[in-house]
Structures are given as structure tokens and as C-alpha cells.
Amino acid sequence: MRFVTLFRKNCAVVLAALAAMLLATAPAQAAKWYIDNALGDVKAEEKVTPATPAPVQILYEFQRDGTPHPKATKQTKQWVLDALKATGDFSEIVETPVANGAVLSIKFNNVVKKEDLDQAKKDGFKAGLGFGLFGGVVATDHYFVNFEYLAANGAAPIKTEVHHALHMKFGKKEVEIPGTEVKNVTAAVQGVVNQAIARGTNTIVSDPAFPK
Amino acid sequence: MLLGLLPACMHTRVDETPPSIETLKLMRAADIPPVALGPFTDAGGKRPLARTVVIRGSTMKPPKGSNFAEFLKLSFESELKAAGKLDPAAGIVVTGRLTESRASENLSKGGAALAAEISVQRNGVPVFTRPYRIDTLWKSEFIGALAIPEAFRQYNTLYPLLVRQVFADPDFQKALKQP
Predict the structure, then answer these.
(1) Within-domain flag for B5
(2) Is residue A27 classed as helix, strand or coil in its secondary structure?
(3) How many CB atoms lie within 10 A of CB B26?
(4) B154 CB near a chain A CB, below 8 Å?
């Protein structure tokens, strides 16, 4: 039941569905969630903040394999807005047009590698049969976060892409996960969102073409 | 265990789709004037052709108190608002007639399509009507927990793509801009 709720509330759609499948077969074992370590937080010495932050219109979309995922967009939007606000890079973040015509588009693309999914399903089924006591499964969700900033109507876009990932481990699989364990899938996805947004906007505002 | 793989029916409503930068850039580049939205209707009239999307006994319905034709209007509204091009008092009015709405899958592959006739009126005079259609195919999963939401998502996604197709049409742009 818990994972069914998670499935509805979170964007890690494939992992959550897999977790739901596992729970149906092996309720005694809990899944563990990890935020990939490669990206990390924006360090203080890396942080760039515009001298005079300006308002921006945000267009946000969660995608699955490059196509829109409206349900996940709705579920994650507030996290993205909060993360964006926390950067301090913009004076106002709204979803309607702003006077200067500035627009920031963020596309959070969850890419599911077929071979990863097939392996995870195979391992997950086996782990489920053994109630998670034998074998296990490690699944990775990849996120390619695309940022596109238009400073004004007709301005050349400033673009960047950030890659992030989260990992799920279930059962007795002995493998080192290149990530930091968090308490649940919600914290995992939120952590991925926070780090990706901070990194992406920092790269955008660092661009020489970004209005100073 | 099989019950875990083939979950009970789920019932959901179509999700509002966010405006995209692609459609916004299209509108900006075409420099379309502000427009109003008129009625969007189902071509089936009293026997709507788009009532519910059914996948493996699970259903996706339009927003509460609405129908899929009105949902298409909502998708137009969302994109126009984001581009600052929606003006309910404008003399240019865009209307729609939903002519096709379907989604299906057979445990291995799925398909969905959405079509509408879009019209433009200028000061009450019809100046443009054209059918638009968009479809998609995907590889479906055996596991219902994956296949059902994926089919709903694929169908849901057609709405903003149909809107984009309309605004990308140079003849539609011309109809909006002609004096």
C-alpha cells in the first residue's frame, strides 16, 4: 500500500512501479534510495548570483524519454519552483509573462534505459520470489535536465543540460552504490531536483550572455 | 503474486498539460496577435465520441464537469496565456471541434490519436477552418502497473502536441494575422 501511494505521489515512475511489484512479493524487505554522488551541490566558491536579479517566467515540464509526463509535472512542479527560488538568481518567479519577456524553460527528462529496466525487472522478480532474502535488484533512474533561458523576446537562448541519477536497491544484493542514501523515494527525487536546479541555473547565470 | 503484477483497475482524470517553450517560441516568432477562445465541442454532439479512455479496464476521464473537447480548449488556453496572447475580448476567435480521440494497447504495443477541426473567426466572420490530427505509437509493457499509466500518459501528451501543430501551421498563423 505504501508503495502504491509512492507510485501516485512521485515521479520516479519506473522505480516506484518496480518497487510496487517487489512489495507485492516481498513485504519484509524495504527498498533503499540513493542520490547519485556525481553532481553534488553547487559549492559556495562556484556560486554566481546576478548583481540585479530580474523577474522570470518559468515553463516547467517533466518528461519521460523525451515526451511530456503531465502527472509527474504536476507532482514535482512545486519542488522545482522552491529550488529555483532558493537559488536567489531571480527577483520573481512566475508562470505568466513578465515585463522583460524573460523565460526559463526547464525540462526534467527521466530517461529509462531499456537494458536497465529489463535487468531490473528480471532481478526484481527473482528477489520477490525469495522475499528479498536472496538476490536483489539495483535500478538507476537517469535524469537529463534541460535549461533554456530567453532573456527577452527575440533574444538568443542560453542553454545547458545537467545529468543526474537516483538509484534504488532492494534485497540482499551486495554492490556498492555510487550515491548517498536518503530515507525514502520522496527525499531522493527532491534531492535530485534541488541539486539539478541549483547546478543548471548557476550555469545559466554564469553565461557571459546572461544579463548582468 | 500475479495480482501484484496485474493490479486492479485504476481510475484517473486527464492531467492539465503545461505550456512549452517550443509553442511559446512559435507564437513569438510568428508574432501572432492576441486571440480569444470560443466554444470547443465534441463532433459526436449528444453522443460524444470522446467520453472515457479505457485501457485494460482502467479509465481516464476528462476533468470534473468537463469533456475532452473542453480539455483541448484548456490546452490552447494554457499555451496562449503563457505567451501572453490570450485576450477574451479580442475580435479574433479560435474555436474547435474534436473529431477523434482514442487510445488502445494489446500487451505489446499501443497507439493513440487525437484530431480536431480548428476554426478562426474574425469579428464573427469565419475565415479559416482546417482539420489537424496527431497520433503516436509505443511499445507497451506486459505489467499493468507500467502499461496502464504509460498509455494514459501517451494519450494525455497528444493535447499540447496538437496545439503546437496548429500554431506551427503557416496558414493558421496567416488567418490570425490577416487584416
Answers:
(1) no
(2) coil
(3) 20
(4) yes
The answer, yes or no, to whether residue A4 has pLDDT greater than 70, is no
**A47 touches B: beta carbon within 8 Å:** no
Tens-digit pLDDT profile for residues B71-125: 999 999 999 999 999 999 999 999 999 999 999 888 889 999 999 999 999 999 9
Where residue B170 sits, what CATH number does that domain have? Answer: 3.30.160.150
Task: From chain A, pick out residues whose CB is under 8 angstroms from the CB of B82.
Answer: 57, 59, 95-97
**A with B: how many residue pairs have Cβ under 8 Å apart?**
82
Which among B7, B21, B154 has the least Cβ separation from residue A59? B21
Cell numbers at B122, concatenated:
474574425
- Three-state DSSP class for A136? strand
- Could you tell me which chain B residue has the CA closest to the CA of A77? B18
Per the structure, the complete domain to which residue B83 belongs is given by 15-177
Q: For residue A152, count other CB atoms closer than 10 A to its CB.
A: 13
Continuous segment of H or E residues that includes residue A162: strand A158-171
Element (H, E) at A68: strand A67-68
DSSP state of A50: -
Res A200 pLDDT > 90:
yes
Per residue in A75-106, pLDDT (tens digit) is: 899 999 999 999 999 999 999 999 989 999 99
**pTM (2 decimals)?**
0.84
Within-domain flag for B2: no
Do the Cβ atoms of A169 and A30 come closer than 8 Å?
no
B153 touches chain A (CB under 8 A): yes
pLDDT digits (tens, 9 = 90+) for A29-72: 578 899 999 999 999 999 999 999 999 999 999 998 888 888 88
Is residue B9 domain-resident? no
A70 CB near a chain B CB, below 8 Å?
yes
Structurally, how many domains does chain B consist of? 1
Residue B123 maps to a domain: yes
Task: Give the whole-angstrom CA distance, residue B116 versus residue B163.
Answer: 10
